[in-house]
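Figure 3 (text version): structure tokens given as input.
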């Protein structure tokens, strides 16, 4: 296998007149944790289903570990693991029994089954729970078991489709430790998530919107490239009135609600901050907090999506 675990070139998937994936091109390195971000309906899951050999592309080309997803889907499926937020486990089986079932499903050679089972139990920290009914496990333990079952056949590429949805923060952190361990041993991890703090763990990210990849790069690179503008945090008692007032301020490029306040993208921050204070004072709006802050991935995400929507409008 070359240095690329996944290669996508001009990939298209349409359903009738609806274009779900619109000429997507990207590459994922071997051993990389690659994050796939985007709002619901952006085309992430459709892309993953094509990469898993479950959907045939309308046009374009994609390979996973050098197997073409359109012409060799069976070989693709033998070389990947897949885990979604809907854990494909059997609640009426024990942890041991679930692992035994999936070793058979994935065609793990009989002489390797004990070794792979022991590895999964150790990796997931489930050795002491091996005889527990899966139904009695917490969400975090089920999540670990589902990941273990997905990698029983030691696939070089693992697809994780929103694997931490609905799991508490402590369990999410522990799960990402497992992902990093897998990556360190040469496994390629392709993960979708709605949690921006999780996206920080990825080596690179692709942001999809409207079926297209609108940004691609490492987390720090994407934050540096926030249009090379500055970001302000602004708190007032009337955020909606504040947003309307800021439309008239020179140097203000974008405003978005963020938590209990506003994030404001500006040119020339010091001058623009003075204009903002003056405008809000004239409008009778109290400025509780106004300061320059470094952008987060969520700021990048919101800014890029809003820019695309303005362009479309």
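Below: residues designed for each position.
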């Amino acid at each position: 296998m070359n240095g690329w675990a996944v290669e996508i070139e001009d990939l298209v998937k349409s359903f009738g007149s609806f274009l779900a994936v619109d000429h997507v091109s990207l590459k994922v390195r071997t051993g990389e944790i690659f994050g796939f971000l985007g709002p619901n309906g952006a085309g992430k899951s459709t892309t993953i289903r094509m990469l898993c050999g479950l959907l045939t592309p309308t046009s374009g080309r994609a390979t996973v570990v050098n197997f073409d997803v359109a012409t060799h889907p069976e070989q693709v499926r033998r070389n990947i693991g897949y885990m979604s937020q809907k854990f494909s486990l059997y609640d009426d089986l024990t942890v041991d029994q679930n692992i035994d079932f999936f070793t058979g499903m994935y065609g793990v050679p009989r002489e390797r089954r004990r070794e792979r089972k022991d590895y999964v139990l150790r990796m997931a920290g489930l050795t002491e729970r091996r005889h527990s009914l899966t139904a009695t496990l917490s969400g975090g333990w089920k999540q670990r078991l589902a990941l273990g079952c997905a990698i029983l056949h030691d696939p070089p590429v693992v697809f994780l489709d929103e694997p931490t949805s609905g799991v508490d923060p402590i369990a999410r952190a522990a799960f990402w430790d497992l992902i990093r361990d897998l990556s360190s041993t040469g496994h390629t991890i392709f993960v979708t998530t709605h949690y921006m703090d999780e996206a920080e763990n990825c080596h690179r990210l692709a942001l999809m919107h409207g079926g297209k990849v609108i940004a691609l790069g490492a987390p720090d690179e994407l934050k540096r490239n926030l249009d090379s503008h500055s970001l302000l945090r602004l708190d007032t008692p009337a955020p909606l009135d504040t947003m309307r007032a800021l439309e008239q301020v020179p140097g203000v490029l974008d405003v978005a609600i963020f938590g209990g306040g506003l994030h404001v993208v500006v040119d020339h921050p010091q001058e623009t901050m003075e204009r903002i204070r003056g405008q809000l004072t004239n409008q009778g709006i109290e400025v509780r907090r106004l300061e320059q802050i470094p952008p987060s991935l969520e700021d990048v995400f919101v800014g890029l999506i809003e820019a695309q929507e303005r362009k479309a409008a």
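The longest strand covers residues 4-15.
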